[in-house]
Amino acid sequence: MNVIETKIKDLLIFEPRVFGDDRGWFMESFNQHVFEKALAERGLDIPQFVQDNHSFSKKGVLRGLHYQLNPHAQGKLVRVVQGRAWDVAVDIRKDSETFGQWVGVELSGENHKQFWIPAGFAHGFIALEDNTQFLYKTTDYYSKECERSILWNDEDLSIEWPIEEGLKLLLTDKDSLAPILKVAELF
Fold first, then answer.
1. Average pLDDT across the chain, whole number
2. Cβ contact 46:93 at 8 Å
3. What sign for the dihedral angle of Cα 113, 119, 121, 122?
4. Is 66 an active-site residue?
5. Would 39 be classed as within a structural domain?
6. For residue range 64-96, what is the model confidence (pLDDT) as tens digits?
7. C-alpha dihedral over 113, 152, 74, 60, to 10 degrees?
8. 104 domain residue, yes or no
9. Catalytic residue from among 33, 54, 66, 123
């Protein structure tokens, strides 16, 4: 598995080896040993996954920017198994030297990339195709009481969302009315 570092040291992209022939393809989508080794080599905390989630989205669905506060903060290992999504993580750790910075990566059923987003980051994505299926492993269970969000288009974040001209975005009220980073409850 190829491990790609990003401009924020805690965020990593995992690119599995895919073996294909005229019958189709095979890949190892997760290996605990490889994952732990990649994090340990970079001095990062090694999580334990406790929950898997699966979402299905139409083109133009924008989910996020979501996170959970302590004591149920979540790290996420995310991937797209069908379709395409632009996936974003924003550093919301007030004491971090990269506070307010973001990293985006295209995840797709074709490129098989996975994005490691530890606790302390807000996460969101936009589905770039119909029938986009998103899988993620989380390091803590869902907690409504700890759930928070930040406005996806907060001007202070300047996230470069790849939104096609004329595309109608599909958002929940929770996401379209989320607070901006300056007033959000953070880590």
1. 96
2. no
3. positive
4. yes
5. no
6. 999 999 999 999 999 999 999 999 999 999 999
7. -50
8. yes
9. 66
CATH of the domain at 59: 2.60.120.10
pTM beyond 0.90: the answer is yes
Q: Is 141 a catalytic residue?
A: no
23: in domain: no
Catalytic annotation, pick one of 54, 123, 136, 141? 136
Asked whether residue 40 is domain-assigned, the answer is no
Structural domain containing residue 64? 50-183
- Give the number of domains in the chain: 1
**What is the DSSP code string of 44-102?**
PPPP---EEEEEEE-TTBEEEEEEE-TTS---EEEEEEESEEEEEEEE--TT-TTTT-E
128-159 per-position pLDDT tens digit: 999 999 999 999 999 999 999 999 999 999 99
Query: What number is the average pLDDT over the span 153-168?
Result: 95
**Residue matched to tokens 């929950």:** 51
